[in-house]
Amino acid sequence: MATMMRKQRGSAGIYMALFLIPLFGAIFLALEGTRYIQKQNRLADGAEAAALAVTMANHGNTSSYEKDLAEKYIQAYVRNIKGISQLEVTSKEDQTTIPSSEGNIEKKYTQYKVTAKTNHNSWFSSFLIPSFSPIETVANQAVARNYPEILGDKFVDIVFVSDFSYSMNNNWGNGKTKIKVLTDAIKQISDEILVSTSDGNISQNRIGFVPFGLRTQIKNSAGKYFCESNVRYTDEYEKVNWQYWSIFTTDYIKKCSEDKNNCKKHNSLLKTQLQQQAKIVMNVYNNTNYRNWGTPDKPVFIDIKKTIENIFTPNIRTTRFNTAKNKLWDSSGLCSKHNSKKFWSIKLTSDPKQLEPIYNSMSPGGWTGGFQGIIKGAKVLHAGKPAQGSDKYSEYKRRLKLLLILTDGKEYPYNLLLPDLVENKMCEKIKEEFKDSDVPLHIGVIGIKFAASKESGYIDCVGEDNIIDVNEVDDLVETIKEQIKKSSQAEGVSKLHYRYTDEFIEN
């Protein structure tokens, strides 16, 4: 009898153990399953937040920036991730029909989709008891769209940074030179933008203009023209008063550098000091002598870091010189006295009359230094920024802002300066200055019968999507309008469109 009881107890224990296996399995699956459902929902929330974030940034592409941004949102929303096994950000442009009281409206949009899979360590995993795998994957994705606000209730500041090198005199087509097509296009755009309101008030839109050769020029209140540099130089270079030395020939400066007694008397400098400066001038001149034409901006004398740190500070006045009196840098590659009064920068203005010299008085000459034009253009745009806290500041923040670079050829003769400046975050520095605006600064490039889209400096500065090459004369105006439209689309309204769940897991 006792033996039978022991056998029955043993059988009961076996049955109990067998019964507990599915019981524990049900418990494990219930607990872990609830956890993974929560993880999938959190991943859905993270994907939605990431999709909205990249859509509001609306860079128009799917570069590493978008993936990095999406990854940060996924990690913030979904805790205890073993790893992200898949993360994709894709975009497309399309349009949809939106019904309204006035009829159907075709609305363009940019759509971004964030797709993610995350791996997690299971709490309960066993080969004996029904449970999840040691590592489980959950997946989800979300889609958001940006519906841009095209120009309407927002005012716009546009600075045209325009190539005024000699090659702009070349014929383009229809009996017109490149410069004629360019200035006609700017006039047409300004006539459309700088239009007074019906009640007679002046337009609140503003246009600035920065023509460039190897340097830019300014025109002072007395009508004098000054050749100016927008980069910074080595400390030794900036010790020299180039305004003073530019009026002398290299023969005189060479003699002064060799013997202080050959130096002319100066009100504030001793002859010893004059000789020291003359030596620096000759060192710069001899190291920049290009085809026997002196040019003062060889990269060895330019301080890239100092330039970027001081983009929005006033120019060093000693690097300017009076164009009409210039003898030192008297070459076709710079602001030569033979080419004086040809072009100069115009600050932001709402008055069309202020832009008339572009079409009536300016003509191109010199070589190509787009880096000078971009920095000067940023300064002109920045000069239109009112003080924070002023009555005009809130309105200014809502303005669209566009820096539009128009060029017909490669940088010459210093083709590495622009890529070097861009590599050291020049364009990021410029954009950062306008980050307090409601609408980000848009920088665009137009190649005038030139493949600007192949130039690394421009690509790395503005991105491939913001460069347009124009080969036909009649296309320039529409291309400029397209770039203006891009600047207005940088803001827009971002809306979550939809999310996927189970069907994505099967794919």
From TrEMBL:
* A Pfam family recorded for this sequence: Tad
Locate the Putative Flp pilus-assembly TadG-like N-terminal domain: which residues?
10-54
- Indicate the transmembrane segments per the record: 12-31
Alphabetized InterPro entries for the sequence:
Tad_N, vWFA_dom_sf
Q: Which Gene3D superfamilies match?
A: von Willebrand factor, type A domain (3.40.50.410)
What UniProt keywords are attached to this protein's entry? Membrane, Transmembrane, Transmembrane helix
Tell me the protein's name: Pilus assembly protein
Q: What is the lineage of its organism?
A: Bacteria, Pseudomonadati, Pseudomonadota, Gammaproteobacteria, Vibrionales
